[in-house]
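[job 0412] stage=fold_complex status=start
inputs:
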Amino acid sequence: LAKTTQPISMDSYEGQEVNITCSHNNIATNDYITWYQQFPSQGPRFIIQGYKTKVTNEVASLFIPADRKSSTLSLPRVSLSDTAVYYCLVGRKLNAGNNRKLIWGLGTSLGVNP
Amino acid sequence: EAQVTQNPRYLITVTGKKLTVTCSQNMNHEYMSWYRQDPGLGLRQIYYSMNVEVTDKGDVPEGYKVSRKEKRNFPLILESPSPNQTSLYFCASSSLGTGKDEKLFFGSGTQLSVL
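[job 0412] stage=fold_complex status=done
writing structure:
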């Protein structure tokens, strides 16, 4: 069964670029990769999603190598407000219908220091 | 505003006293799901529903029930709560599997304490 593994915690400083890597060695051909951000006492919030190569939006970039066994969330120039837990998620289609299995990592707690 | 609404936000109860946590979404999503979040264990799925009257077990369904009689509502029922169900619960909805963005929208959470 697919499993996602990510670092438990990371620390950074304001203005730096932060890269969080998630390992998903057993990813299947049709699986997609999603990252969520969670602040204390709030539900997770969608950041970015991709299938292969590179995806960029207004808050982050997602890098996925050709073998897709890992993915890296890149946060440019972090600020104190980026202090949060970041979750990697692999979405798997289960059958011919619309059913999905969502495989969550345990989250990476990012601390941004002044 | 597109949102997932859970109630109550905080709940303290005693062992064995039936309770229901409500969840409602206003985005016409087919998919809804319940998660529990515990320190060191991340998010674990309890139940999910692909559409009205279609529900299925997640990874930790024991001790929980759900129903999906209407598209917008997906209540979580604890028939006989026990202390090991003390946790932070999240409801989520999505247009999962419909060819649109496979993005989950989460509620603000319900902190449940069972004494």
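[job 0412] summary: The longest strand of chain A covers residues 84-93.
[job 0412] exit 0
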